[in-house]
């Protein structure tokens, strides 16, 4: 029993939850001094005491014993201070280790198809022109037609060697992060919290791809503040990756006879992006006044002002064939969480179980599922 590992895990989990040592001690039914000594590593606790602590803070007992791998080549920026940052990075490190373990076990590793592009871009000047060029070349590498909308960005990224992890975190200041190849990636982690729209999930995935291609020199765990110029460049990349310039212009021109609001919402549905992404592209052509014009036109039509988190023409959850807990997103009729599903890790788990390389219990652990849910999935395999 490594007391330092246990103490480090307890401190990380406690701080992520925003609790004091006294609060955790109360939950575990022990004194504050006793808990403090366990967290500091100065005493060796009984297993029963650790079980009470784990139960009190809502984690598995084994989570307290697992060493934490420190990620270094990570781009993790957020617009707000995050107490859960260390906890997220620990979870991502474990997920990457599991993913790479299965790939190695099954000799089933995807080649990273953007490696040459990222290297070439590192020697070019920064700016919006570079971002637009990168988006165009990235689509060509993926054999996407110029007017072809991206229907499955998670699957698309996985097909070119990028690992995708949908991670639900109750935060409106964190949308995603990415990990460089040297740390077990390349990987993108997207916040799929139910209050964040599906369109935002998709845009965030494209945005993180932009960082992987354009800003590898900025992958440093010590950096936590957002770099506005790099964020803007990644936004330009994502916008043009999801909506190629000629295709966007063609679809926008085709809606010429519709009202401004209807034009924006129709183009939004075609490319499966947020209305904000459409307005952003229009602002490149017509100027920033386009944002105010849309808000005014939308309020004139509906009597409502759109807040930062709103997405117009949202469908109620019962319109989707998914559980209500997953579907509280403010999105239009063409999208649901099924538009952002990664499946490569699930395929690797199935192959490993069928080859008797891992147990069903281990498969459930890798997929972050309960054993009962894992059994249900296994019984449904055809």
Structure description:
The protein starts with a helix and ends with a helix. It is globular, with a radius of gyration of 23 Å. The protein folds into 3 domains: 3-64, lambda repressor-like DNA-binding domains (434 Repressor (Amino-terminal Domain), Orthogonal Bundle); 74-242, Arc Repressor Mutant, subunit A (Orthogonal Bundle); 344-380. Strands 1-3-4-2 form a 4-stranded mixed sheet, with helices on both faces. The chain contains 17 helices and 4 strands. Helix 12 (260-271) crosses helix 13 (275-286) and helix 13 crosses helix 14. The longest helix has 22 residues, at 85-106. 53% of the residues lie in helices and 4% in strands. It has helices at residues 3-17, 21-28, 32-40, 47-57, 85-106, 115-121, 128-141, 153-159, 198-214, 228-242, 245-254, 260-271, 275-286, 289-302, 344-354, 360-366, 371-380, and strands at residues 74-75, 163-167, 176-179, 187-191. With 382 residues, it is mainly α.
């Amino acid at each position: 029993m490594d007391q330092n590992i246990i103490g480090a895990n307890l401190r990380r989990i406690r701080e992520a939850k925003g609790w004091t040592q006294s609060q955790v001690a109360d939950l575990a039914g022990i004194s504050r001094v006793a808990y403090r000594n366990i967290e500091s590593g100065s005493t060796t606790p009984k297993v029963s005491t650790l079980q009470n602590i784990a139960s009190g803070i809502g984690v598995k007992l084994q989570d307290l014993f697992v060493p934490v791998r420190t990620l270094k080549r990570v781009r993790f920026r957020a617009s707000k201070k995050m107490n859960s940052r260390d906890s997220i990075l620990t979870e991502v490190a474990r997920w990457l280790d599991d993913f790479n373990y299965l790939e190695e076990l099954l000799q089933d590793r995807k080649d990273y198809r953007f490696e040459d592009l990222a290297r070439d871009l590192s020697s070019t000047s920064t700016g919006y022109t570079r971002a637009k060029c990168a988006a165009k070349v990235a689509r060509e590498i993926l054999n996407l037609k110029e007017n072809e909308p991206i229907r499955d960005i998670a699957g698309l990224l996985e097909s070119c060697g990028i690992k995708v992890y949908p991670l639900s975190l109750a935060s409106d200041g964190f949308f995603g992060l990415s990990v460089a190849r040297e740390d077990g990636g390349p990987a993108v982690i997207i916040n799929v919290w139910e209050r964040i729209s599906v369109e935002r999930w998709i845009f965030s995935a494209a945005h993180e791809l932009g960082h992987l291609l354009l800003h590898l020199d900025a992958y440093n765990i010590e950096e936590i503040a957002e770099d506005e110029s790099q964020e803007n460049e990644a936004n330009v990349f994502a916008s043009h990756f999801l909506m190629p310039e000629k295709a966007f212009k063609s679809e926008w021109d085709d809606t010429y006879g519709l009202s401004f609001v209807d034009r924006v919402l129709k183009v939004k549905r075609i490319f499966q992006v947020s209305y904000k992404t459409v307005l952003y592209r229009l602002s490149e052509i017509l100027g920033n006044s386009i944002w105010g014009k849309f808000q005014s036109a939308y309020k004139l039509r509906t009597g409502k002002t759109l807040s930062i988190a709103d997405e117009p023409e949202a469908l109620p959850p019962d319109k989707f064939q998914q559980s209500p807990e997953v579907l509280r997103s403010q999105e239009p009729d063409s999208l649901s969480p099924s538009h952002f599903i990664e499946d490569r890790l699930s395929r690797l788990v199935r192959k490993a179980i069928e080859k008797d390389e891992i147990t069903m219990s281990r498969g459930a652990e890798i997929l972050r599922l309960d054993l009962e849910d894992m059994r249900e999935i296994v019984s449904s395999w055809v």
